[in-house]
Amino acid sequence: MKKIHLFMGSIFIFLIIISCQTVVLDDADMVSWDNHYREKSRVGDKGPGTLVIGSGSSDVRVASLIYSPENTTVRVADIYYPRAMDLHEARGAVIMVSGDTDNHAKDYYGRTLKDTDQYMQWGQVIAEEGLIAVTYELGNPQAALETLMTWIVENQKYLGIDTQKIGFFSSNENGCSVGLETIVKDSTKYTGPKPVFSIYYYGLMPLRSKEVFTDIPILTVQTKDLWGRGLPASMEEFNQSAIADGAMIKALYYPEGEHYFDCREDTPRTREILQETVLFMKDNMEH
After folding, report:
1. For a designed S-S bond to 214, which of 45, 113, 246, 282 qualifies (C-beta 3.0 to 4.6 A apart)?
2. Per-residue pLDDT tens for 70-96?
3. Strands (E), the chain
4. Collapsing DSSP states into helix, strand and coil, what is residue 234?
5. Which sign, positive or negative, has the C-alpha torsion 109, 268, 239, 255?
């Protein structure tokens, strides 16, 4: 299995301009694909590493769509589609939950989070496996996820997304904290579609007194700590508490693994975890 290298000259982008008063699409908005990712637009630090999984193909389509209205701040979501997908059909989608702000990401990486290698390459892998992946620009992480999901529900028939088959992939300290709200009963921070699965990579899981749905499959991946923040202990506490409540958790352990191991390390164990993650996505989308 080869490392993925995104040569963006072969990826097409679907560019839509919509009214500043609304983010609801209509039939006229799904008409054209354009070449968006050009080598000259990818200068500077692209973010952490190169994801080690997938076919090595970059033959996917990426639609760049405005999901947040102009009367707040214009934000764009990138939707990764399988190349062979008919845009009039509906497929399950994996939302790549972000927990950082784009202002911080631009200072650190020189680009928004959705344009760093980790998000772009996971988006590609998910689309290669026949699902849709969604990454997005953001300010406030929790508010952005809520806005994004409202937009997806309102525009599902134009986006080709089956909102009965939404999965969430959260990583890092803040990303997992935001993504956790998608499986919390009676959450006031997330009111979108109930997910068919939720994945948490090396993050902070502040469950506290919150109860999670026991019928949502959950995958956690625990690595070693980052800067002494107590991330493994937090995830283990979440695992034990949720399991005691009857939650369906598949816990994967990689105690010597680095933060961002999924796109920085290429070992038999990292490949195994990544493959199990993709199978977890696909299996739970089919049920």
Report:
1. 246
2. 667 889 898 988 878 876 789 999 999
3. 12-15, 60-68, 75-82, 91-97, 132-136, 161-171, 197-201, 218-222, 249-253
4. helix
5. negative
